[in-house]
Amino acid sequence: MVMRNFNVNDKAYGILFVDQTDSDEEHPYEWNEKEIKELCLFIGYSEEDSKAIAGEVTHYTQPGDEDEMRGYRLQENNDNLEPSDLTIGMFIKSIKDGFGE
Fold first, then answer.
1. Is the pTM for the entire model greater than 0.85?
2. Closest-CA residue to 16 (of 41, 33, 4)
């Protein structure tokens, strides 16, 4: 199995989350569960844990929603952070903080 490589400075938009296909104005983005699982594998989680983490992330959160962004703004100490500003590295930190290393 070839593992995908990620650059921590790349924007997460377009990789980990994309524009909502259902035109849901309340939630303009949707997760790419496959890429989140690949990111977890890249970080070093097992196949089983990566699948579980990706499922939990995509089931319990919405990309770019206000609760999620509040956490990223605190994490990055940047009150002006927008969903399009999020990087792969920020997601890695968030996953490690939420699920352990």
1. yes
2. 33
Largest pairwise CA distance in the chain: 40
The rounded distance, in Å, linking the Cα atoms of 20 and 77 is: 27
Beta bridge partners of 17: 13, 31
Instruction: Report d(CA 81, CA 55) in Å as an integer.
Output: 25
Question: Which tens digits make up the pLDDT trace of 1-22?
Answer: 556 889 999 999 999 998 876 6
Nearest CA to 84 out of 64, 101, 59 is that of: 64
69's tokens: 């962004």
Q: Amino acid identity of 71? A: G
Q: Where are the alpha helices (DSSP H) in the chain?
A: 33-43, 47-60, 66-76, 88-99
CA-wise closest residue to 60 among 88, 97, 31: 31
